[in-house]
Amino acid sequence: MDKIVLKIVQLKEAQDLPLPDYASPGSAGMDLRAALTEEFILQPGEYTLVPTGLIIEIPENFEGQVRPRSGLALKHGITLLNSPGTIDSDYRGEVKVILINLGKEPYVIKRGDRIAQLVLVPVSRAQVVKSGQLSNTSRGEGGFGHSGVE
Length: 150
Fold this sequence. Notes:
By secondary structure, the chain is mainly β. The chain has one helix at 70-76; strands at 7-10, 30-33, 40-42, 47-57, 62-67, 78-80, 85-87, 94-101, 107-109, 114-122. It has a domain at 26-122: Deoxyuridine triphosphatase (dUTPase) (Deoxyuridine 5'-Triphosphate Nucleotidohydrolase, Chain A, Distorted Sandwich). It starts with 6 loop residues before the first strand and ends in a 28-residue tail after the last strand. 20% of the residues are buried.
């Protein structure tokens, strides 16, 4: 697969922070960092909007998915409130991350902390067609735990 180009503008408040990058050759996501001016204590059950100081240009026919970092989730109960968050290709505002503390202890977010990851994913656009009938399947209307349940 050809590499795609992700154009990034670093806002003044993030000039000293590293640009998003892949941690290893096999990484699917690029780390996003907190562009806070001072530490923020995220209390258990609390959520907040954390700026990254980045404006990005997602290529057409792609979306940016903002996903939690597994280490933060496992060690501290820190995750994203809207996971995955979607960044549309025509959005040109600052990327911000909604972090929530589902853990039992307060969590300190510091400037430059890796708070989420950005994954670029191709998208398809559907042609919506109104229909009076849909095809039948063996599953039918079964949902919410239906598969594999006797």
